[in-house]
Design a protein that fits this description.
By secondary structure, the protein is mainly alpha-helical. 96% of the residues lie in helices and 0% in strands.
Length: 57
Amino acid sequence: MMTRIQETDPVHFPTQPNENNGEKRRAGKGIVLAVVGIGIMAFVIYMAAILIATVQS
């Protein structure tokens, strides 16, 4: 049983850091896209509020 665990360890150790880096990069891109999306939506709502204010006055 010990030899099987030792044989499988080198297989898992190289793949786990690569998967973690991929997940971190994806999470980072997702966070950046979410912040950019929120910023764009806030700008659109801001412009709509200005447009509504100018039309009503």
